[in-house]
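Request:
You are asked to prepare a plain-text protein record giving the amino acid sequence and the backbone structure tokens, at your earliest convenience.
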Amino acid sequence: MLRREPLVLFLLFAAGALSAAETPKVTFLRDVAPILNKAGCTAGACHGAAKGKNGFKLSLRGYDPQFDYEALLYDLSSRRFNRADPARSLMLAKPTQQVPHGGGLRFEIGSGYYRTIYTWIAQGVLFGDPAKDSVRRLEVEPREIFMNAPGESAVVKVSATFADGGQRDVTREAVVESNVPDVAAVTDASVKGTRIGEATLLVRYQGNFATLPVTVINPKSGFAWKPLPQANYIDRLVDAKLQRLKTQPSPTVDDAGFLRRVSLDLKGQLPTPDEVRAFAANNSRTKRSELIEKLIASPAYVDHWTLKWGDLLQNSRKYLGEKGAFEFREWIRDSIARNKPYDHMVREMLMAKGSSYDDPAANFYRVTRDPKPTMEKTTQVFLGVRMVCAQCHDHPFERWTQNQYYEMAAFFSAVGLRPGYEVGEEILFDQRRDFDMKHPKDGRVMNPKFILPASWSGTGAPPTDARRRQAYAEWLTARDNPFFAKSAVNRVWSYFFGRGIIDPVDDIRASNPPGNPALLDALAKDFIDHNFDLRHLMRTIANSRTYQASVVVNEWNEKDGENFSHAMPRRLSAEELMDALALATGVQPVFPEAPPDTGAEQVTDPHVGKDGFLDLFGRPARESSCECERRSDLSLPQALNLVNGKTISDAVADANGRVAKAVLSGRSNHDLVSELYLASLSRPPSAAELESGIKYLQDGAGRTARAQDLLWALVNSKAFLYNY
């Protein structure tokens, strides 16, 4: 039998000389919903699961308070409340385990949470007024936590400002989580630094979010900042943070290392032996900048970036047919070759119409086809925002709501596709009727509405007719859209460094802030000021000392993996690896359905292959526009393929390959060893390597076979497989 709580009744209605009529009104919105969220009742493992728990369902993380309120009040004939005797209510009895509860003890009898819910029931289970009781803003103190050594602690205070202007300390009810728990461990509202590094605390309360950066610096004494040359604003902003973190950046890489790195990053190919020799012999002080300009102007640059955009835009014959995939690739390639401003390129895709053959940009819509996946793709690729979570409920880690998801999808609800006159052709058009986007819960029509304020050429609210797509395109690419330019520069930055300033690059949200906000802002501003010029952006990055830093670390930056104090080795992509093998061995792979001398980076889509090599080494199937689809790991099957695979063994031993031609031409052992190093590692061998290589070729018979063994060993080395 449930116990009565006379002490609780006294505390509720007698303490402080307050009468029952004078007791402050407790509402579900302002007072009770935060308790349910904090107690875990709305968690995915409890009643917030897709199908609820034990026959009772609440919205995940309490994203829909109206739904939760009605579920509590009306489910099972309101049996969870006893308004005549609140202490007997199941809503109090279960979490205090006065009756069996699968969720265990959530709070004690007589606790603050207990008293709040008791009062709410006694006062008539009021829902509250959203215009007054909704949270408008969260404030977190301190603004930043900076710890001078692991082991230090700090306390977080969270305050909420409500719609009626009222404020409340909600530290106890707020959820505080760390994105790197082994740097900053959180217990309730207490934060402890556990190791050197950086983390971000995500503070959540009633659908509102705030972030708090935490830095734990190296306590080691003796640090003295040693300034290095700064080529541009990138270096100044990177150095400013490194100096604050007591992290000394590495000096620049040598000429050979720079040549190999920048060649791979700008054109996806290794430099030829002649190019290595020429660069080493060039004594110009500006030869690195001159090389960057030469690479950006090369046809291989166009092929390389056409491949990357083909991945993001999912150019594949699976969706577009063979001719459609070819036409779309040629449109992308032409845009890169002409250095079309990035905002123009995006607008052309979003505003395309008519035949997919006459206007290949229209193929963008043929992949996703429906409004919802089209909206998800545009926001993820061009804004770096993942809206997919908000399709079923408010986003659990961001401010985006389910309503916003359908308001954004409504921009594409008027887009239609119909068969064209040629085989595989489709016509893209804007429908004139029957294109309403309806909310799945109640069927109400969702008019298009932007998730963020930004200018567009129209006035007032976005149009609700077939012109809505144009409004979306103008809003998305607006110069003051806070995500468009940042998403672009962050993505391009990741191609040169192996990670973004925000990482993952297509998951920009409050709980995933930039590692260097000032740097990201400066890159975005520069990008906009130069009219969204991608080549200017790449030129600026490649000329920076930050990009040209060595992989060699020092005692102060050896543990840094986020602040770009030194270069991070990156495994070559599948296509880069195959084209590098072609250069090293002198044997061009043959791709079915492709012209002779086609490189791996020049193939139209992932359905063109070579013995499964490209797929094994992480070529994306283009089933998704997420960067994560391209794999850069090194697995056991890959290692076995490198050691015993047909692709490498056949190329190394080819009768028309580099080794065979060198031997037949009478090249000396000295020249042969040097050539193999230049062709595979983009540098001459060291004195020890040269001596060892010559000795190996001289020992025993079968000079050709030994030279092939040496080349095989080089292309199986980390120095070949990774971009340093």
